[in-house]
Structures are given as structure tokens and as C-alpha cells.
């Protein structure tokens, strides 16, 4: 049973420094009402950082996340492990949602996490090449996140 979600930020919930898209806010509200724990991976170059290293996010969206993890452009297993530890969940109870099969999906699958590829934007035509790059689900709209989670 899925109890937590780890979102890739840039390209999935927001676009660079332009901020979160309306569809993202609706999804985060829905997930909060359903009781899911959520972590956000943010590329540290996407937002200004406070002196404590935490990103300054637009619209006060940090209230929707259990944890916000600054990462490099390429997500590492250690970033996902940190999110799982902070959410106090086992890997099998987490789904990672991202827009890149070769980084977001691959890193999560290698840890035994479930994955949803949000096939959108710059990397929508980046096809899986390795076994670990094949997601559990492919979605084309954030509106499909909840129905996909319910089927995992």
C-alpha cells in the first residue's frame, strides 16, 4: 500500500523559477486530504536557498510536504533514502513521480520504490533503455496521479 510520495519538482510540479502550476496545487491539496506523506526533490539551482540550505519556494507550497530535499540535477539514491527516512516509510510504500525515466524512475526502481513517469515537457520523448527505467505507470496529466496510486 502506498503511503508516501516523492515528487521530482522541476518539470513535474513546477517549471524552473516560474513557480508551481495550478494543477500541482490542486493535486497537493487532494493528496493532503487523503493523508499521504509527501517529499519534494528540488534542484538547488531552481530556487534561492536560505542560510540553512532550504529552498525558498513560491506560494508557501512547503506546507504540503513532509520534507524538501535539495538535489543536484541527477537524483541520487541517497536523496531518495533521505526522503524515505524523514517520512518514516519503507521503500515499498513509496511512489516516486518524475518526468525523467533515466534519472527519476531509474533511481527509485533500483531501491524497490514504485514509479510514475509524468510524460510531459522536455523529456517526454526520452524512452527507457534499461530494465530499471521502465515505470510502473505512465501519465500525461497530474490529474492521473491519484488513480495511478490507487492501482499500485
Q: Could you describe the 3D structure shown?
A:
- There is one protein chain.
- With 152 residues, the chain is α/β, with parallel strands linked by helices.
- Helices cover 26% and strands 20% of the residues.
- The protein has 4 helices and 6 strands, in the order βαββαβαββα.
- It has helices at residues 22-33, 77-87, 101-111, 145-150, and strands at 4-8, 37-43, 67-71, 94-98, 114-118, 137-139.
- Strands 3-2-1-4-5-6 form a 6-stranded parallel sheet.
- The longest helix is centred in the first third of the chain and has 12 residues, at 22-33.
- The radius of gyration is 14 Å and the shape is globular.
- The model has no long low-confidence stretch (mean pLDDT 86).
Quick gist of this model?
By secondary structure, the protein is α/β, with parallel strands linked by helices. The chain has helices spanning 22-33, 77-87, 101-111, 145-150, and strands at 4-8, 37-43, 67-71, 94-98, 114-118, 137-139.
Would you spell out the secondary-structure blueprint of this structure?
Layout: E1 4-8, H1 22-33, E2 37-43, E3 67-71, H2 77-87, E4 94-98, H3 101-111, E5 114-118, E6 137-139, H4 145-150
Parallel strand pairs: 1-2, 1-4, 2-3, 4-5, 5-6
